[in-house]
């Protein structure tokens, strides 16, 4: 399945370009690079100069560039936990709901 703004939290983030928009550590704000590692609680971002920096997911807001070139804002709480845990959360969604991202609304159903 293709990574989109609507399902990005249920995919691996490794390989995506990322920018830290907000975080509890002021020294990491504005950090930009490629996600090279993902754990339950953090992302490791490799910058252009080759530095690898660990950023905690909690209390952070990220901007990810999708493979098609568009950018999506994701709160750290949405990507908290391992990929398997995030997919389990998807399985617990019931019925019809709304996903809201970047000022748009899209209806989803669990089928």
A few lines on this structure:
The chain has 111 residues and is mostly beta strands.
Give an overview of the whole structure:
This protein is mainly β. The chain has a single domain (8-109), classed as Ribonuclease P/MRP, subunit p29 (SH3 type barrels), CATH 2.30.30. 9% of the residues lie in helices and 41% in strands. The protein contains one helix and eight strands. It has one helix at residues 83-92; strands at residues 17-22, 32-38, 42-46, 52-56, 61-65, 71-75, 96-101, 104-109. The strands form two sheets. A six-stranded antiparallel beta sheet has the order 4-3-2-1-5-6, with no helix packed on it. A hairpin with a 5-residue loop joins β3 and β4 (52-56). Residues 94-102 and 107-111 have low confidence and may be disordered. Part of ribonuclease P, a protein complex that generates mature tRNA molecules by cleaving their 5'-ends. It is an enzyme of class 3 (hydrolase). This is Ribonuclease P protein component 1. Keywords: Cytoplasm, Endonuclease, Hydrolase, Nuclease, tRNA processing. It is found in: Cytoplasm.
Counting helices, strands and paired strands, the structural category is mainly beta
CATH class: Mainly Beta
Main sheet attributes: strand count, strand direction, barrel closure = 6 strands, antiparallel
- Radius of gyration, in Å, reads 14 Å
- Share in helix: under 10%
How many domains, as an integer?
A: 1
Per CATH, what is the topology?
A: SH3 type barrels
Biggest sheet: strands side by side, in what order?
A: 4-3-2-1-5-6
